[in-house]
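Section 4.2 – Deliverable D4.2 (structural model, holo form)

The reporting period included a commitment to supply a predicted holo structure for the target in complex with zinc ion. Inputs used:
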Amino acid sequence: MAFKLYNTLTRKKEVFKPIEKGKVGLYCCGPTVYWHQHIGNLRTYIFEDVLKRVLMYNRFKVMHVINVTDVGHLTSDADVGEDKLLKALKREGLPLTKEAMLKLADKYFDEFKQDFEKLHILMPDVWCKATEHIPEMIELIEKIEKNTYTYTTNVGLIFDTSKFKDYAKLGRLNLEEIKEGARGKEDPERKHPSDFALWITNQPNHIMLWDSPWGKGFPGWHLECAAMSMKYLGDQFDIHCGGKEHIQVHHTNEITEAEAATGKKWVNYWLHAEWLVVPKGKMSKSKGEFFTISDLIEKGYDPLAYRYFCYTAHYRTPLTFSWEALDSAKIAYENFKNRIIEMKEDLVSKPKDNKYQEQFTAAVNDDLNIPVAMSVVWNLIKEKDLGNKEKYDLLLDFDKVLGFDIRGFKRVEISEDIQKLVDEREAARKAKDFKKADEIRDKLKEMGIVLEDTPQGVRWKRA
Ligand code: AMP
Ligand code: ZN
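Output (structure tokens):
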């Protein structure tokens, strides 16, 4: 079945063809580790995880790289402003030293990896930190410089975008409009508003500075991704992803750097995720209205209920966050879980021809249409003509993409007190003391436990 992905570069769904048969190089722009990642950021990583899982489902061997930005991401896209990590040191009242900065970056990186585990996001093959790849970045700039794309201003070494003929291609940018806009205005020596810094030298008090042919300084943020992705995936690779706000500047500039250095087309498929939105617009740290996975856990949500919530919208449509919407997803996820737990406890076999596998594959191979794939899953769960064993085997296969780990779904252990009440009720029922049995059932219900009498005996589940 043809596997199609929507490519931002062509604005079309295209049949995916890897550079090397059976293999995929996948680069995902990672976090700037200066604060908690919110559930909006994590929506993008869940989408990327689904992409990776669907690639693997189609039997591709995936080499997955995610970067960690621990230097060089400034508060303004115009290569001015404060390093976000420096801002974080001040926010947390920490000493303004290199050690404190690296420690802070590690703290938020660890938290991010824990979020991955909680959400069942598969870890990449390579995590690469910007501060550990400065020589590769300098080498890449040297190639760009050799190809005569650079000039110097007070800010540092600048890329001359007018010399790169395809500058507008990813963002379908209107360069005239950019001229009128704010881009580049903070650096009056800049020749064109879309020009951007490769190496920044005008912040002598920056905590992390490295020697370079252009003076002591630090790399521009876009350069980090270009240099690190090429180190691990080569001068040309298959897929590059990120949030949609990266199309116009960050990814445009990454392409410009890579292709100016090598003279070759760099990445074949660009995939961009729509945002998680709140009434004010994009959920973002700067707007202040954001929630983390820890916030969700504190409020009693299973992180996987959030993963399930993300499956209610296609990755290229905005998803509106509200507690009510999350509650609906939570109920649906619990229902999903309970149905599968019950199925597993009664694995009778009744084979019958069915189209679920085909329908599921068609949905995920159609530009990762997970909402449709989930409707196939629900139709399968509700199917009356197929045995539980056949259904469960299919669900195990679909779970390679969905990532819920349904094999691990089990009834939640109940405390000794509750077990004692369940046993007492069972004894009352056997003794035909139905009044007492009903009283205990009501008491358990108040505690959030629902009992079901089945031919196999009494079963309980959380309400
Ligand atoms: P940042 O740490 O801000 O660079 O963001 C990390 C990733 O999360 C990037 O790919 C962003 O595009 C993405 N992102 C940020 N905010 C949102 C949001 N509200 N919804 C979805 N993705 C987001
Ligand atoms: Zn990037």
